[in-house]
Design brief:
The complex is a heterodimer of chains A (171) and B (61). Chain A is built from four helices and no strands. With 171 residues, chain A is mainly α. Chain A has a domain of 49 residues. Chain B is mainly alpha-helical and 61 residues long. Classes of the chains: A mainly alpha (171), B mainly alpha (61). The interface between A and B is medium-sized, with 27 and 33 residues.
Amino acid sequence: MSWSDPARRFEPAEDVQLRAELRDLLGLGASAAVQAVEPTTELKALADDLRREALRRSRTQRRRPTWGLLAAAALPLLAALAGLGNWGIQQKHRADDLAVQAQRQEQELTRLAATHATEVARERQAKEEVQQKLQLASRRSSPKAEPYLVIPVEKPLKGVSDEFQRVKQKP
Amino acid sequence: MRLLSPTFREALWLFVVEGLSIREIAEILDIPEATVKTRIHRAKAQLKEQLNPAGGVHVLV
């Protein structure tokens, strides 16, 4: 079926009128007159040129992207975003676990430090009590003992001076 | 007609000489029907400017 077959289309009246106006404007007149006129070489070349151009444009003209194409183009991006989100959630869970573990360790260290301090204080108190008991016991064991000074001497005094030489009394 | 731009010229040619409807031209050129109508009307306006408005000889050149 050719393009100019009148049975294949229905045209509004305004389009028919517009076509008639344009024919008059171009000096083509009625369609019968056009068919009667023998087309010149230049007219044929122009027609071929226009047909080729229309065919080329219909083949090469870029079609509008459909939703399917847009979805297919967005699919890798969505997959990347999903992967990134999953990785982020995993990292967040990992960070939360580490924070909880660190908090537990800190609590354990605090508890150990408190226990250690308590034991040290207890031992110090016990030591003081033992010292006090020893002092009391030593005081009770020698109540009359007079305090005297002990001077350690490495070698005995041999050369005693005359002043302190003990002599036997003459009868 | 050669003075028209290629887009206007092809729409005008398909509509007037080939006798195609607006819808058919839109399908062939893969453009909306409103665009076809706009091109045809603009081509008509340019033709009126180029041709002699006093009723001179119309020549398809």
